[in-house]
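Subgroup meeting minutes
Present: P.N., E.W., G.H.
Scribe: E.W.

1. P.N. recapped why we're keeping a running log of single-chain structure predictions: easier to compare across weeks, and new members can see raw inputs and outputs side by side.
2. G.H. added today's entry (207 aa).
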Amino acid sequence: MNITSIEKIENQRKIAILDTSSVSFLQHLNQRCQRADDILKDYDLILIPGWVWEEISDSEISVAYVQKLIEKAYPIYKIDEEGYSLSVDEQEWNLYQIVKASVNQLGQVKSYLRRCVEKSDPLDMDTYAEWINQLYDKWPIQGNILPSGRQKKKNAGEVSITILAEIISWYYPNSEMITVYSQDSDTKTFQISADDQYTKSVNQTGR
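Output recorded in log:
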């Protein structure tokens, strides 16, 4: 299927972010004739991060369900991680701090950022698009090979959702509501930790 991608988040009042588990959960309820997707009807924008979309694409059933939602005029869009820079007005050092806060619970990923991305002088760092794609390609927490042939990248989807939620929270003050739909407890843990860590960073250095 073709899901429309957006490069920059505009100021929308009500925004939802979907993860793989929430799509699967809603799809299962829909199969049982329960109109669970009605919970999405009041949102102005529904986002699926690119890394999450890769996970959803492992299941033809989940892809078909998202397609049906789009056909019902739900405002569902994919947003790729390398485009997050545009959503923070290309303030790439701030975006790096958000990413670092978002992986605070994952020692292997934090170590990768320190070794392979961070420089003593931020001006010496690669562009955000370069290093975020390298991070995903070399994701430090590799899992098993899935039936789809894709290698599982443990917690990558939760990290991407956390980064996106932090961007919306800090850079889009006109958004009245940001809802992350997830059945995964890690997502909530990462969000709480990221918000705490990034708030500390802002208080220490200013933004």
